[in-house]
């Protein structure tokens, strides 16, 4: 055994010594050509950094398991229904809370169902402090913490007993991050209280570090029992997500089938009272809904659903850029190796083996990759939060956990090793195959083809063309959506989300509006239940003469007189609401409503029937016709919409009271946000029990509709620029390699009188064949893959001339990269070259 160990040591020590020598020699080689080395390190660092940053974001949003007990058992229970506006399948929350109880009974003991609402930014105040502050609050099943195997960092967590009686247990649990940031990790937080919706909540505990909810993209600050939600006893009102913890030995499909049967029975029982109020197709559509269990190891959120495909697309673009960088550095290493052919020949002549030469070049490649890894780490640390900032909607910023931990380190290390081998192996093998006699005579056959290098150049250009093609698609999509007509003017428009301490009638709300109209810099003020494009919407069934005209649902919005003038929506016929007709059943409708229910005829003076709940139907007279305006999603077509008076009535014929409304304000100044603070103070000046929760420009609401498109367009443009630069550098390296190999031939041709044009053509003609072929192949691949990103596009096609022209930029980059090489070739001094040889 000792002899074997000694033999191993004898072999290891010389290898380590040779490795040390190769590292020192490789470092000197890098310093000899600082510009080339810096270009290789920077280009590879950007590519590896982009890959690491992309993984960091994708991991945080889609891959990182929740810090709970056996997260692989967690599923999201969704209901697949048809969108009433697009007619396409869409996932929805499956149950209202009364039905959730029944579903939980059906699922037990095979699975434990957990109700989790969306985490909402909520106004609350602590103790006796009347100053409001915001926190992300989430209603959760009391048994969630126990089911997840979570433990308290302080106090206790919610239990099932805390979630049995409506409004019965006003307890709250804080997340560890919120406890540290808001209370500076004060252990005295237990027992403190806060006021939410006029109810006092007691803080009973802090959850363990690392757990901040089950919605990637949102870090929940406060957890309260679902029974504290005022909607908990309401039927047909889906306000939460259902999660399922499935036992290990249970077949998921079998469980889903059993739950589907119970769900179908539930639908038959709950929807039967809609017969006669819905068309047969609408009723059949509601009854044919299906359940779906989706793995939720990393949690479940709307942000995941919205950004899953964009993240996959961006990951592919990053991979293409990384391939370009690898090929680029490999070509540069090959070019450097070719200039060191005589050195390699001497090494072989004095006894260096091929294995030794491969190690020498690989070590140099590893030094480049090590430098690139440092740049990559800094780039990934900086870039990922920047990308998250690009995702953020103005009213609800994304909050992702982005730790620099071992998980990220392992990915970066693995990527660095792959890049080292990819960049260095081919040049190393090529350098080790040098023929000493030929190299010492001055080089190989100048006409020898270099299929590997030409192939790498063609692949680089093809990858670059694909990135350029998709960048063109995403930029064009953003441009089309940004210029999509919405039917109103968003300039100089503010929305004041306002809350009253007690529900107030429309008369009181209008008094506040009158006060705001007197503020300097205000052009008009009106009221609405919510701003257009704010993510809020209400829909209702409409019938004409007691019969549903079609299966289409219509949007409904409460607005005050003058609202359409504030929004700059044209009045096409009839009149606006009057201030004194709140008790009248009247409505304004848009053009799409007239087309859907009155065959496009002027509907003013006609009427329709609207279901008022509890089986009651009310007749509504149309008093005005407005132009179409998009109110929910910019990607959806204009939809039938009715506008009812702000001072609307309930089913008992009483004027409604509300505690939250939106003042829609058009300013006289272009910088409308400059008046935000003034308006915040003006509202409580008018009524002390009112306060402004949020001030948002209408343009911000519009911009929030294109967050995904902006992310794709901006990052695709960035990757396209990087791909162009890397491809140009790669082409330059190969052309430079060609000139180095053929310098004797070029010198002789110039000495014999060859013109500069002929020299330039001979230097570049062999390279432009793979460049052009790569562009064509890349364009064809892009067109073929377009169908897989069709959901992300809007109003553009890959066959549009402007999109088809994008890969031509790769050819332009190749031409620009060839210029300095051609200049160097035509300036070869034959006399000096031949004298040196």
Tell me the structural class: alpha+beta
Tally the helices. Answer: 24
Largest sheet: 8 strands, mixed
Q: Using DSSP, what is the number of strands?
A: 24
Principal-axes geometry comes out as: globular
Care to describe what's here?
The protein is an alpha+beta fold and 837 residues long. 49% of the residues lie in helices and 18% in strands. The protein is built from 24 helices and 24 strands. The strands form 4 sheets. Strands 15, 16, 17, 18, 19, 20, 21 and 22 form an 8-stranded mixed β-sheet that branches. Mean pLDDT is 81; it is low at 444-449.
Quick overview:
The protein is of the alpha+beta class and 837 residues long. 49% of the residues lie in helices and 18% in strands.
Q: Helices, strands, pairings?
A:
Elements: H1 2-32, H2 34-63, E1 74-82, E2 89-92, H3 97-107, E3 111-117, E4 120-126, E5 133-140, H4 144-147, E6 152-155, E7 171-174, H5 176-183, E8 193-196, E9 199-207, E10 222-225, E11 240-246, H6 252-271, H7 280-287, E12 290-295, H8 302-339, H9 341-349, H10 354-391, H11 406-432, H12 436-441, H13 451-482, E13 493-504, H14 506-517, E14 522-528, E15 539-540, E16 542-543, E17 554-559, H15 563-567, E18 571-574, E19 586-590, H16 591-598, E20 607-613, E21 616-626, E22 641-645, E23 658-667, H17 676-686, E24 690-697, H18 698-704, H19 707-741, H20 743-751, H21 756-785, H22 801-804, H23 808-826, H24 830-836
Helix pairs in contact: 1-10, 2-8, 2-10, 2-11, 2-19, 3-6, 8-11, 8-13, 8-19, 10-11, 13-19, 13-21, 13-23, 14-17, 19-23, 20-24, 21-23
């Amino acid at each position: 055994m000792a002899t074997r160990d000694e033999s191993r040591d004898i072999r290891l020590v010389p290898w380590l010594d040779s490795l040390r020598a190769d590292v020192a020699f490789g470092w000197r080689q890098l310093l000899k050509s600082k510009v080339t080395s810096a270009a290789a390190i920077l280009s590879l660092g950007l590519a590896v950094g982009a890959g690491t940053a992309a993984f960091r974001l994708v991991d945080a949003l889609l891959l990182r398991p929740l810090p709970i007990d056996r997260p692989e058992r967690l599923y999201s229970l969704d209901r697949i229904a048809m969108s009433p506006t697009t007619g396409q399948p869409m996932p929805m929350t499956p149950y209202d809370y009364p039905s959730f109880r029944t579903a939980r009974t059906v699922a037990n003991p095979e699975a434990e169902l957990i109700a989790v609402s969306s985490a909402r930014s909520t106004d609350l105040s602590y103790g006796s402090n009347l100053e409001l502050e915001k926190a992300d609050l989430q209603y959760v099943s009391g048994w969630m913490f126990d089911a997840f195997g979570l433990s308290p960092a302080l106090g206790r967590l919610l239990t099932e007993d805390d979630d049995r009686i409506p409004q019965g247990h006003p307890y709250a649990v804080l997340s560890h991050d919120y406890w540290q940031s808001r209370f500076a990790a004060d252990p005295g937080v237990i027992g403190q209280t806060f006021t939410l919706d006029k109810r006092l909540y007691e803080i009973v505990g802090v959850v363990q570090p690392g757990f901040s909810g089950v919605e990637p993209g949102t870090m929940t600050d406060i957890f309260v029992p679902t029974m504290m939600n005022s909607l908990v006893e309401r039927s047909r009102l889906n306000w939460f997500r259902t999660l399922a913890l499935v036992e290990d030995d249970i077949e998921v499909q079998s469980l889903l089938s059993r739950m589907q049967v119970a769900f179908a029975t539930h639908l038959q029982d709950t929807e039967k009272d809609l017969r006669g109020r819905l068309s047969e197709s609408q009723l059949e559509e509601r009854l044919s809904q299906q359940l779906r269990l989706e793995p939720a190891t990393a949690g479940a959120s709307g942000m995941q659903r919205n950004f899953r495909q964009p993240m996959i697309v961006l990951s592919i673009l990053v991979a293409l850029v990384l391939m370009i960088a690898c090929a680029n550095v490999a070509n540069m290493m090959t070019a450097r190796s070719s200039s060191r052919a005589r050195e390699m020949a001497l090494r072989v002549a004095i006894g260096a083996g091929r294995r030794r030469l491969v190690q020498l070049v690989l070590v140099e490649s590893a030094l480049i990759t090590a430098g690139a890894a440092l740049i990559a780490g800094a780039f990934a640390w900086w870039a990922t939060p920047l990308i998250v900032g690009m995702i953020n909607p103005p009213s609800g910023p994304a909050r992702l956990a982005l730790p620099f931990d071992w998980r990220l380190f392992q990915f970066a290390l693995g990527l660095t090793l792959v890049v080292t081998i990819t960049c260095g192996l081919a040049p190393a093998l090529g350098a080790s195959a040098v023929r000493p006699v030929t190299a010492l005579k001055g080089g190989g056959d100048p006409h020898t083809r270099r299929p590997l290098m030409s192939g790498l150049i063609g692949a680089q250009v093809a990858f670059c063309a694909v990135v350029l093609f998709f960048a063109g698609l995403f930029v064009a999509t953003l441009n089309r959506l940004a210029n999509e007509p919405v039917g109103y003017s968003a300039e100089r428009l503010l929305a004041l989300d306002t809350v009253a301490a007690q529900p107030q009638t429309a008369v009181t709300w209008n008094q506040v509006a009158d006060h705001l109209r007197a503020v300097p810099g205000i052009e008009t003020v009106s009221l609405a239940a919510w701003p257009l494009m704010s993510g809020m919407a209400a829909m209702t069934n409409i019938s004409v003469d007691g019969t549903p005209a079609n299966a289409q649902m219509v949007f409904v919005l409460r607005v005050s007189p003058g609202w359409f003038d504030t929004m700059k929506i044209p009045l096409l016929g009839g009149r606006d609401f009057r201030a004194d007709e709140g008790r009248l059943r009247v409505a304004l409708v848009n053009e799409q409503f007239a087309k859907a229910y009155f065959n496009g005829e002027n509907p003013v003076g006609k009427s329709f029937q609207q279901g008022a709940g509890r089986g009651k139907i009310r007749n509504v007279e149309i008093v005005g016709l407005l132009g179409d305006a998009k109110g929910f999603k910019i990607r959806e077509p204009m939809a039938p919409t009715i506008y009812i008076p702000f001072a609307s009535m309930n089913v008992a014929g009483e004027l409604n009271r509300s505690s939250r409304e939106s003042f829609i304000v058009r300013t006289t100044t272009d910088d409308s946000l400059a008046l935000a603070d003034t308006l915040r103070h003006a509202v409580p000046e008018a009524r002390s029990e009112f306060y402004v929760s949020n001030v948002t420009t209408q343009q911000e609401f519009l911009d929030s509709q294109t967050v995904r498109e902006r992310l794709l367009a901006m990052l695709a443009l960035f990757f396209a620029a990087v791909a162009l630069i890397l491809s140009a550098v790669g082409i330059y390296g190969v052309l430079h390699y060609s000139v180095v190999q053929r310098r004797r031939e070029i010198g002789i041709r110039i000495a014999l009188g060859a013109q500069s044009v002929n020299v330039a053509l001979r230097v570049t003609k062999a390279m432009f064949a793979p460049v052009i072929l790569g562009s064509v192949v890349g364009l064809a691949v892009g067109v073929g893959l377009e169908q897989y990103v069709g959901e992300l596009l809007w109003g553009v096609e890959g066959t549009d001339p402007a999109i088809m022209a994008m890969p031509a930029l790769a050819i332009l980059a190749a031409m620009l990269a060839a210029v300095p090489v051609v200049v160097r070739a035509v300036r070869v001094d034959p006399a000096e070259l031949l004298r040196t040889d």
